Amino acid sequence: MNKPINQIIAEDKVEAFVGQVVSDIAAAYSGVLTKVGHSLGLYKALAQNGTLSAAELAEKTGTNQRYVLEWLNNQAAGGYVEYHPDQGRYKLPAEHVPVLADEDSPVFLAGSLGGLTAIYRVEEKLTEAFKTGGGIGWHEQDESLFYATENLFRTGYKANLTSKWIPALSGVDWKLKQGGRVADVGCGHGASSIIMAQHYPKSSFVGFDYHKASIDVARQRAREAGVEERVRFEVASAKDYPGSDYDLICFMDCLHDLGDPLGAVRHAFQAVADDGSVLLVEPHAGDRIEQNLNPIGRLFYAASTAFCTPNSLSQEVGSAFGAQAGEARFADIMFKAGFRQFRRATETPFNRIFEVRK
Question: How many CA atoms lie less than 13 Å away from 353 in the CB half-sphere?
Answer without folding.
Answer: 21
